[in-house]
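REVIEWER CHECKLIST
Item 1: Sequence provided? yes
Item 2: Single chain? yes
Item 3: Sequence as submitted:
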Amino acid sequence: MSQHDATVMHTRMFLENMVSLAMKAQEAGIDITPQQMVGPTLQKIVELASQHFPLSKVLDESDLVFHAEGPGAANSMPWLGALNWITSTADSNIRKLALAFFDMKGGDGKAILRKFEPRLTGIAPGSLWVGIAIPSTQDFSISPEHLDGPTLRDEVHQLPELVQFIGDEGMREGIEEISPDPAMRDISLTALMKFSPTGRKGIHTLDISSRIDGVAKLGQRERVVLREAIDKPNMRKAVAGSFVGEIREADLDKTRLHLRGVKHIGTLRCVVPSLNVEQAKTLLGKYVRAVGSYQVDRSGRPRLLFVERFEDPGLGGPTKNLDF
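Item 4: Structure as written out by the authors:
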């Protein structure tokens, strides 16, 4: 049963009880006025109409639902800054996640993103609830070979489940089992870090929920752990290797680049810890050899490369390190 259907059922119960009481009063010879009949249930009906119906719409129609708590979201009139932080953060993070997702699928993430518009399904009172819907990939011109495996909605729906693996001092073991693609896991953890509130906008915690994987809470503690996990990612089971491809932008602030056109692989997500934004911009569009250690997905395909250095691949001659 959907949240909307449940709310309608509860409203029906209140109305039926109201009519039933009036009928029993008449059978007993008690003269009851319309005001007396309506009074006991009116306040509850008003509450259902003003709070539960808007919330049930948000819960039923959203791929992700955010529930903020803190002084900026404490009553029916939240701070405008708090609301703006949730909506702008959701828009920015989901767009970046989609860009990285389609890039890793071998599509043109930037071109797709020009038509990609996350939708606001609604805002509901009771602290502050905001719902976001993800456009269907059917709305874009994407080659079928780029849509194999989990969809963008699948990755978004899994975000709350990944939160359960955030420990007090680091990421808990087992996350690789439910998120076996190291590139998408890195992309998703980056999105979760950005969703974690700092407390500066009157929001202390942000609950994030999806249609599939329940509710998870993000706060300043989770933000600290996630930042550490992103800055110093786990290199377990990484093996040495080198790959040649074209450098494309991914998330320069988080020292991430994408290596596209890698023979027999497609796209590799690259982690370059020593890289700053200006250095990254000098690499964009260049054809390079990336040398380091990489992790694979369940099929054995390289997906995430921890870069030690970039080299000029040359044209049959010796390679040389690129300065960055």
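Item 5: Key structural point noted by reviewer: The chain has three domains: 3-60, 64-231, 239-321.
Item 6: Recommendation: ____
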